[in-house]
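Anyone up for a design puzzle?
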């Protein structure tokens, strides 16, 4: 029987805090492919099975949609007329789209000049009220929390606990595809909401307790369907790595603008994840991140945004340095699509060749590239 897939809430209804009367707002998010890297292991000569969970294939091109379907659904259920978020880009794109779908207003605060063009175009096109602030994400996040105390708007950043509930479903999908949890799961870390959400998901699936689990999230389906949890690896950009510094970073900077975050909202939870999973944090330079973004695009046909490549860049280094043992199965989350940030992609690619519209000219190009 063919069943029409209608998003994570319908698919994982029993594992999420919804009831039959909850007005589900969905764009068919989730169910993203888990793609095993085929060419990089021999090219780079390493012995590990790396699978990438390509979250860039969600409706607005990032993992945020898993959380946003839940946050907007619950906002609507509570009678909210408007949502608000601060964002490095992807949250704003997702909030704008799901608000449009729900027929409510969205306000998005973004750092002026520091968000990728595709994300800005999404927020604008979906009709969000786009507020560019002369400040960074951390300033925006602080302002959103202040403003939401005074005016009736629902915050849909990951401090909204329904966001993590939606995002935990990525872990369920991975377990279902692999038959069990992988040895390692690597993610790029900004606010650390997603690494926390995955840990909640893996813990629920294995029937194991975690101190990151929210206190009050009634779910009906508590069946155990995995035998274990992975070690969680969180990678940051070197210029924006509060978890490596062990403290907040005041002026974070990186080409991976999605994770240009100095004051992570899920600071405490992320340390608990590291502790409970026996995992670790790492950092990679912008050069390493862009290099791996390009490797994935050129040799695997997978175009992710720079921030996403931090997960694979981190894992490749930790394999080389022996921190990840030979033969390990590793899942890396590719959090967003490469089309989100066309400027960065074009800046690091070779220019198109310009020729006359003649057969000779084109044949000359083909011959010179095949020899
Ligand atoms: C592509 O959009 O914070 O560690 O405001 O867009 O859960 O914060 C984006 C985060 C990784 C980090 N990869 O996830 C926002 C925002 C991409 C992202 C992250 C983000 P968290």
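Challenge accepted. My sequence:
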């Amino acid at each position: 029987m063919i069943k029409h897939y209608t998003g994570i809430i319908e698919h994982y209804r029993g594992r999420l805090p919804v009831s039959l009367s909850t007005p589900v707002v969905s764009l068919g998010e989730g169910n993203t492919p888990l793609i095993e890297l085929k060419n990089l292991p021999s090219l780079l000569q390493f012995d590990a099975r790396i699978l990438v969970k390509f979250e860039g294939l969600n409706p607005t091109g990032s993992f945020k949609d898993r959380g946003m379907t839940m946050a907007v659904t619950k906002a609507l259920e509570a009678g909210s007329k408007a949502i608000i978020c601060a964002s490095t880009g992807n949250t704003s794109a997702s909030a704008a789209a799901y608000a449009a779908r729900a027929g409510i207003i969205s306000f998005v605060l973004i750092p002026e000049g520091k968000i990728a063009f595709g994300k800005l175009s999404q927020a604008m096109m979906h009709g969000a009220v786009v507020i560019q602030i002369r400040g960074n994400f951390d300033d925006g996040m602080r302002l959103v929390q202040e403003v939401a105390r005074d005016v009736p708007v629902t915050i849909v950043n990951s401090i909204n606990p329904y966001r993590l509930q939606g995002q935990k479903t990525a872990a369920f999908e991975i377990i279902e595809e692999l038959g069990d949890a992988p040895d390692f799961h690597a993610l790029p870390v900004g606010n650390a909401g997603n690494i926390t959400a995955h840990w909640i998901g893996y813990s629920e699936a294995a029937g194991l307790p975690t101190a990151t689990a929210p206190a009050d999230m009634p779910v009906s389906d508590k069946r155990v369907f995995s035998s274990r949890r992975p070690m969680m690896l969180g990678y940051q950009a070197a210029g924006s790595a509060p978890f490596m510094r062990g403290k907040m970073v005041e002026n974070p900077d990186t080409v991976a603008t999605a994770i240009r975050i100095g004051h992570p909202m899920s600071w405490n939870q992320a340390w608990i994840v590291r502790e409970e999973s026996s995992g670790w944090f790492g950092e990679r330079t912008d050069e390493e991140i862009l290099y791996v973004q390009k490797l994935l695009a050129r040799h695997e046909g997978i175009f992710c945004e720079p921030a996403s490549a931090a997960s694979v860049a981190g894992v490749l280094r930790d394999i080389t340095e022996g921190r990840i043992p030979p033969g390990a199965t590793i899942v890396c989350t590719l959090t967003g699509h490469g089309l989100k940030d066309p400027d960065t992609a074009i800046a690091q690619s070779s220019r198109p060749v310009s020729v006359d519209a003649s057969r000779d000219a084109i044949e000359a190009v083909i011959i010179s590239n095949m020899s």
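A detail worth pointing out: The mean pLDDT is 97.
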